Each structure stands twice: as C-alpha cells, then as structure tokens.
C-alpha cells in the first residue's frame, strides 16, 4: 500500500481538542446537546513529541503534512505554531492546515501567516456561511473573531482558502461569501457538498439549548457548473463494481497515511479505529491479521517500521479483494465522499 521509494504525505490529527459543536462531526453527541462523545481524551502532540517521533532522516522522505483531524482542530494544539516552524523551516515540509479559525488572537495568526509567507504551505478556513448563518452549523463559532483572525493571517503573507459547506440555510449566500473572500484577499473559495447526510436529506440533532433541530441539504445549482447537488450525489454514490477492482485506495495512490491524536497510524481517517461512534475498518484488518493494535501506534514503534508491516502490504489488499471492508467500499468503491468545487475569485 505504501511505497518507500516515493515521497510520503501525512494526514495528521495533532489533537482531539475542539472549541465548536458541529452536529455532523464524529466528536459530537447529537442526542445530548452536541456535547463531546464519550472517549474524547483531550490529548495532543507537543513539539518535543514531533522532534522525537519524526526524525530528520524520515522527514527527508515526507513531501507534505496535512493538519486536520476527525475530532480536533490543529490550531488548538499548544505548540502548533512552533511545530509548523520546525517542520517547514528546518525540514522543508509543505504544510496544509484545516481550521474553523475561531480561536486565539490575531497576533498569533499574523505570526502563522508570516511563517507561511513565500512557501507552498497554506491554510483552509472552514466557514459555512456569513455572520447570520455560519454558527447554525459551526455551533459556538464567533464571526468577528474569525474575520479578525483570517485578516491577520492574510496580512502576514499567508495563503488562505475559504471552504464553505453548502446547506439549504446558507446556499443563498455563496456569491456574497465568495465576494467577501475576494475582498479579504483569500486565494480560493471552495464550495463543498458534504457526504454526511443520511437518506432522506435531513439530519436531526439536539441543539445545546435542548431543542431538536435539523440540517437540510442544499438544492441550488452550482454557479460555475451545470451540475446540481443531487446529480453530484447520485454520481458519487454509484457503485464502481465489485471485488478488488472496486477499491481504488486513495491513500495508496497518494502514498498518504493518517495519524490520529493518540498516535495510531491507519491508511486514512475514514478507517481509523478511533471513530468513537462507528469504529472503522482498521480494527477489522488488525483482527484479521491477528495483531495487537498497539503495534500501530507511533509512540510504540517507528513510523517506517509500521508502514512496512504486512497489514498494509497484504491484509488490506486481500480484504479489498473479498470486499469485506464496509468503509473502504463506501469511500473508495462507491466514491461516497465530500464533493469540493473550487470557484473562481
């Protein structure tokens, strides 16, 4: 699955800390006022961890690190800026950061912008609406703080992309948000159709105030294409076939693996066994191999040794062949993923 003759990409969840209560996030208990699900550990990697666990010889083989998690926002990690500086300035690793932008002070973001200035690294601000709508999904987000932080990052010279999940409640604001992004100096505006809606196009959850509410899928045409959200969903959900040919592993193709906040390495975030509400295919594959899950934690075993384990070279491909991994089939067989469309600024 992973090829040490090619440069690696890493998808890394530095922490499971988050300041928001987004209903569709796996950390959110939608039946209990959007509180964190049981099992959140409030953990993170520190600079000293990164220096030890990613030694210089290994980092020479790493092309890019994407800081994004199943449960946490990387910008809440205590040493995040120092980690970025160490990886980028000392080891030349390109970084991508995914954040809600609703934390810390503008001077911290300006420092991060200066660090990213003139490099290939960039940051994604995930803002799903404007002042009157972003908080409807990003529960707890502060609009003025996000705007100030994004402006400071851009003023520092950093490249920022605005990512916007379209729902029925914000679909009318795409053009206004895109214009706001252009005016603020964002580099790109990315509209997203989320793959997390169940059948029926409605997602119910208990709001922190105690009443039940629901999210609805967007219905409008994409402004830059002739495709509707429903057409996009039908296309992405269409089975690609059966057997091994149905699983075209995105992680293998990109030579990209996932590390969660506890240190466990998995092929991708979708099959990570720390999905506390629905354990993924990683545990199924580990059980089939008759191995201890602790062997796949980078705190217990060197990363390169883990990547060479036959779990990835033999067990996963065999389970794809017999079509026994549900999440792999859904994500890399049926292509049931978020659909992202970059719109011109």
Describe what this molecule looks like in 3D:
This protein has 13 helices and 13 strands. The protein has a nine-stranded mixed sheet. The protein has a two-stranded antiparallel sheet with strand order 2-3. Helix 3 packs parallel to helix 4 and helix 10 crosses helix 12. The longest helix has 13 residues. It starts with 7 loop residues before the first strand and ends with a strand.
Short description:
The chain has 345 residues and is of the alpha/beta class. The chain has helices at residues 47-53, 56-59, 80-91, 106-116, 134-137, 143-155, 174-184, 229-237, 250-254, 281-289, 303-307, 310-321, 326-332; strands at residues 8-12, 28-29, 35-36, 62-67, 94-99, 122-126, 160-165, 188-193, 202-206, 212-216, 256-259, 265-266, 339-343. Mean pLDDT is 91; it is low at 228-245.
Main sheet, how many strands, which sense, barrel?
Answer: 9 strands, mixed
Name the poorly predicted regions: 228-245
Described by the principal axes of the CA atoms, the overall outline is globular
Structural class call reads alpha/beta
Taking Cα atoms only, what radius of gyration do you get, to the nearest Å? Answer: 20 Å
Q: SSE order, as H and E?
A: EEEHHEHEHEHHEHEEEHHEEHHHHE
| Helix fraction bin | 25-40%
Cα(first) to Cα(last) distance is: 37 Å
Count of helical stretches: 13
Percent of sequence in beta strands: 15-25%
Spatial order of the strands forming the largest sheet: 12-11-1-4-5-6-7-8-13
The overall average pLDDT, rounded, is 91
How many strand segments? 13
